[in-house]
Amino acid sequence: MTPIQSCILNRNTKTKPVWIMRQAGRYLPEFRKIRKNNKDFIKLCLNKKIIPTITLQPLKRFDLDAAIIFSDILMIPYGLGQNVKFTKKLGPELGDFKIDEISNTSKINFTKILKPVYSSLQNVSKNKLLKNKDLIGFVGSPWTLLVYMLNKSSPKKNLKKKIFKDKILIQEILKVIVDFTNLHISQQVKNGATLIQLFDSWAGLVNESELEEYIYVQNKKVVDFTKKLEVPVICFPRGIKNYSKFVKNVKPDVISIDYNVDPKIIGKNIDIPVQGGLNPKFLLGDKSQVKKEANKYIEIFKDHPYIFNLGHGILPETKPEMLEYLIKIIKENG
Ligand code: CP3
Question: Which of the chain's termini has less CB crowding within 10 Å, N or C?
Answer without folding.
Answer: N
